Amino acid sequence: EIGMGLTGFGVFFLFFGMILFFDKALLAIGNVLFVAGLSFVIGLERTFRFFFQRHKMKATGFFLGGVVIVLIGWPLIGMILEIYGFFLLFRGFFPVVVGFIRRVPVLGYLLNLPGISSLVDKVGESNNMV
Asked: What is the role of the protein in this entry (predicted)?
């Protein structure tokens, strides 16, 4: 419960920090809360194993490097690196997420619109499972 709360607040602060033109303080708080919440949700050992697998080292470098750069004070560059690392780290989960969202009544309809459907199909066909 604590981990889900921390992760939720972390995502909120990251989103709010980006809306407010990449506010350094909000992004830094969001990063710390997100990583701490993830550690609480899945445990410290599993978090460490997830981030430091051999085939995910590049993604981990971008993600954690982006966190450090945001904490140093360059929020735009740090967030670009973080987003890229996030997509590399969690791309194995995207097919599951797309499949779930397609079953939600209103969102499923939106994802099946002609222009959006082809983009979502490309995201959802990832073969890299975690």
From this structure: May be involved in fusion of ER-derived transport vesicles with the Golgi complex.
